[in-house]
Amino acid sequence: MIVALDHIAIAVPDLEKSIKRFMEDFGLNYEGTEHIESAKTSTAFFPLPPTSIELVHPLNDEGPVKKYLDKKGGGLHHLCFRTDDIEADIARLKEKGYEFLSDEPAIGAHDCKVIFIHPKSCDGVLIELNQPQTS
Amino acid sequence: MIVALDHIAIAVPDLEKSIKRFMEDFGLNYEGTEHIESAKTSTAFFPLPPTSIELVHPLNDEGPVKKYLDKKGGGLHHLCFRTDDIEADIARLKEKGYEFLSDEPAIGAHDCKVIFIHPKSCDGVLIELNQPQTS
Question: Judged by CB atoms within 8 Å, which residues 18-37 of A form the interface with B?
Answer without folding.
Answer: 18, 21, 25-28
